[in-house]
Amino acid sequence: MQGKTGFILAIVIVALLAFSSSVYVVNETERAVKLKFGEVVDADVSPGLHFKVPFMHKIRKFDARILTLDARPERFLTLEKKSLIIDSYAKWRIVDVQKYYTATNGEEMRTQALLAQRINDGLRNEVGERDMHEVVSGRRDELMENLADKLNEVALEELGIEIVDIRVKQVDLPQDVRQSVFDRMNTEREREAREHRSRGQELAEGIRAAADREKVIIESGAYREAEAIRGEGDAVAAATYAKAYQRDAEFYAFWRSLKAYEKSFANKSDILLLKPDSDFFKYMNSQGK
Asked: CATH says 67-172 is which class?
């Protein structure tokens, strides 16, 4: 009885092993091919649960998501034969599973190496047709779009993959020419600064000259107006004096003499050398009489 039970248990275990080796699952994020003694019999196995014949069939699975190729920075020459170090990356995914497996044996590292080589060749051609300004800032997006379109056809035909996008992370100058370029840029900026300063000084001189001219005009006008007002005041004062003199000439003469005495004898150290019968002492002499 025990021998029969052990035999049944062995049969169950063998059956379970045979079933587990005959069943496989392809996830939604995977692409797969079925091989029969190394030959592709199913080029694109759909996601889900599938069966295979053990020892006859072999399943190769690949990542179906968008993958990233981070290429190494490479040195390229522009249209004017200037060197640039360009660091780029690419996004790609598997489209034709059979062609991908045939071209790369399903090895992702090999795929990335082949793709990186083609991207570098394409970048070298695109950069060589443009000057430094276009590569650095002017038309970089156009460059990347052209490169992605051209490489996508080649990659799809040769490797069975789709180039989703290609982008430049950084564009830099080589270390051996960076200092000379910086020096030239500094020289150009200094020249522009001198031009701006000289232009500013010229404008400042013009503004200053205009201000001085305006000042002279304003002062001349003010002086002319002040003289006119002063003349009018003197005329009014003279008319007032004349009117007052006409009303009482003797009193006016006396008042003027008092004002002259006041100013003449304001300081005790003042000395006047005059004749006693001078008109200056007219009213003093009259008081003595």
From this structure: alpha beta
